[in-house]
Design brief:
This protein is of the alpha/beta class. The protein contains 13 helices and 14 strands. Bound molecules: S-adenosylmethionine (SAM).
């Protein structure tokens, strides 16, 4: 009689839990493969337009990457992962937990029964449980997301999904900030999509006073935003006309800037660092300042073949700009993560730099400075605009 294959037993249990929707979550740990900085993989079931999927969140040291797979692909990945690169698998279902541990060729499985655990909602169900579940709100109508009947318009479904997603990302980051109240600045607020949604959600859930100020150059948007905030009864939300650099950010707990144009993102980061904000989160827009320097400067000759193509120059400018921003934040005592915050189907400008102040730079300051200097020299960048601000 051949010994039972514990990994196949584990995979059968995963498959069954996926099929009957009793899968709560699955985690692969003890990674010892070739991918630098990969720590673990967390897996859940979601439902997307195309059907049911396994959603894998690959947790790296400083970022997360999410990939969705149909069942056969997911099981094949789990099989090879558990046989080669991960030493443990933990399956949590509504009725039992199954722990797999592999030591070389030896595999142990331990099952324990549980009671009273619910299956989490899948993405499809979650749509009904979005942070902004109630849509009959004046601000949603003023922003053109709902019609007069308070129902999300067909042509605004994407926008509504996006702002829900933003609340899902920002609310936990903000709620993790210690203190008796919360002061949030949104730099380059535009029409204030994020501010209205975030305020609506935080005012109901934060259990402490919340103030959000949207700083915006265009006075007409500020007037409209303030009128809608008043109409909504959002006493802690206001918009102020002016430039980011002129705004006194002292006392801010969080400084956010979504798609503020080019160096306006740097102005926001600078204001956040100067104010000692606990959280700085920016989704950069265009990257002209660094691109112009790369074009005028002398990048390493080896890059010539790459940078002569406009599209690659553009992408490299984006990478260089935002890498330097992340390093400069690190240099100033922030832990930084960069990840995609909305699908690139909505916008190609979908990177979010999230920096949380932890009082000490993650690495040796001299090492960070050396890395900044090397990257600049390699790409022919004289000075990053944010660097100049920080040297003032
Ligand atoms: C692309 S819009 C993004 C608006 C909003 N954050 C959003 O994501 O919907 C950029 C906004 O930033 C504003 N802006 C650009 N530079 C600014 C500055 N230096 N100070 C204040 N506002 C600025 C623009 O007027 C514009 O409304």
């Amino acid at each position: 009689m051949t010994a039972p294959d514990r990994i196949e037993e584990f995979l059968s249990a995963v498959k069954a839990a996926f099929m009957d929707s009793s899968l709560v979550r699955l985690k692969l740990g003890g990674y010892h493969g070739d991918e630098p900085e990969l720590k673990s993989v967390e897996i859940k079931k979601i439902v997307v337009k195309g059907g049911e999927r396994f959603s894998f969140t690959y947790r790296y040291k400083t970022r997360d990457i999410i990939k969705n797979f149909i069942q056969p692909e997911a099981i094949a990945l789990l099989r090879s992962g558990l046989r080669e690169a991960f030493r443990s698998g933990q399956l949590f279902t509504t009725t039992f937990d199954l722990m797999l541990e592999r030591n070389g060729d030896k595999v142990r499985l331990k099952r324990s029964e549980v009671a009273g655990r619910d299956a989490p909602s899948t993405e499809h169900n979650r749509a009904k449980n979005r942070p902004l579940s109630e849509t009959n709100k004046p601000y949603l109508q003023a922003l053109g997301i709902t019609g007069k009947d308070g129902v999300v318009r067909n042509d605004a479904q994407d926008k509504f999904r996006q702002i829900n997603k933003m609340v899902e990302i920002f609310a936990p980051l903000i709620q993790a900030i210690p203190g008796d109240d919360l002061r949030i600045l949104d730099m380059g607020a535009g029409k204030g999509y994020l501010d209205f949604a975030l305020y609506d959600y935080l005012a109901q859930t934060a259990e402490r006073p919340v103030e959000i100020v949207g700083v915006e150059l265009r006075p007409a948007l500020v007037t409209d935003g303030n009128a809608t905030a008043a109409q909504s009864g959002f006493t802690g939300l206001r918009f102020e006309a002016g430039s980011i650099m002129d705004y006194d950010a002292n006392g801010a707990d969080a400084v956010i800037a979504l798609h503020a144009c080019d160096t306006a993102t740097d102005d926001a980061i600078y204001k956040g660092i100067s104010a000692g904000a606990a959280l700085i989160a920016v989704a950069p827009c265009c990257h002209k300042q660094v691109r112009q320097q790369m074009e005028a400067g002398a990048p390493a000759p080896v890059l010539e073949g790459m940078l002569r193509h406009g599209i690659f120059l553009e992408r490299q400018a984006e990478m260089v700009t935002d890498t330097l921003r992340a390093l400069l934040l690190e240099l100033n005592g922030y832990r930084t993560k960069v990840f995609e915050f909305v699908s690139d189907a909505h916008t190609p400008k979908n990177n979010l730099i999230v920096a949380e102040k932890d009082g000490r730079a993650g690495r040796d300051q001299a090492a960070i400075l050396a890395q900044i200097a090397e990257i600049k020299a390699m790409f022919g960048v004289g000075q990053h605009y944010l660097e100049g601000l920080l040297q003032r």
